[in-house]
């Protein structure tokens, strides 16, 4: 799994929570770093923040969707509700509205991987 997030605190939070349920998470500090990591191996899932500093997230989302032939689920993390519509249009599998609760993260990731994450049965995502 790849988390593309410029905020190191959020990146560490994502990694710690997802690794605690047995998922392997690589963190990318920006869009270009994320693209380099993807060129080294295709992740099972991508968490993509829309507030990247080096590249427009909408452009990156389109590029990732095309490069990975739509085969890798991409969850967009956004603080702005209008970005949700854009995310769906550009190929995102799902979205998380920031700030989000850990159970919402685990459920959304579990659903994107077509298997509910451990310990999240019956929890509703923050949407």
Give a written overview of the molecule.
The chain has 127 residues and is of the alpha/beta class. Helix content is 41%, strand content 15%. It has helices at 8-19, 31-40, 57-67, 82-89, 102-112; strands at residues 2-4, 26-28, 46-49, 74-78, 94-97. It has a five-stranded parallel sheet with strand order 2-1-3-4-5, sandwiched between helices. Strand 3, helix 3 and strand 4 (74-78) form a beta-alpha-beta unit. The chain is globular. The two termini are 22 Å apart.
Fraction of helical residues: 40-55%
CATH architecture: 3-Layer(aba) Sandwich
CATH fold-level assignment? Rossmann fold
| Uncertain spans | 116-127
Percentage beta strand: 5-15%
How many domain units?
A: 1
Q: What is the class in the CATH system?
A: Alpha Beta
- Form type: globular
Secondary structure tally: strands: 5
Structural class, from helix and strand content?
Answer: alpha/beta
Largest sheet: 5 strands, parallel
Mean pLDDT: 85
- Determine the CATH superfamily: Response regulator
Question: What order do the SSEs take from the amino end to the carboxyl end, as H and E?
Answer: EHEHEHEHEH
| Number of helical segments with 4 or more residues | 5
What labels would you give this structure?
single chain, 127 residues, alpha/beta, Rossmann fold, five-stranded parallel beta sheet, disordered C terminus
Structure, briefly:
It contains five helices and five strands.
């Amino acid at each position: 799994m790849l988390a593309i997030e410029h905020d190191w605190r959020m990146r560490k939070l994502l990694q710690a929570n997802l690794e605690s349920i047995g998922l392997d998470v690589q963190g990318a500090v920006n869009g270009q770093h994320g693209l380099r990591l993807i060129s080294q191996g295709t992740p099972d899932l991508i968490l993509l923040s829309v507030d990247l500093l080096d590249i427009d997230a909408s452009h990156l989302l389109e590029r990732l969707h095309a490069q990975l032939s739509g085969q890798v689920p991409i969850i967009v993390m956004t603080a702005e509700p209008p970005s949700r519509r854009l995310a769906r249009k550009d190929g995102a599998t799902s979205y998380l509205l920031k700030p989000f609760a850990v159970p919402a993260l685990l459920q959304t990731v579990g659903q994107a991987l077509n298997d509910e994450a451990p310990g999240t049965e019956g929890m509703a995502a923050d949407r």
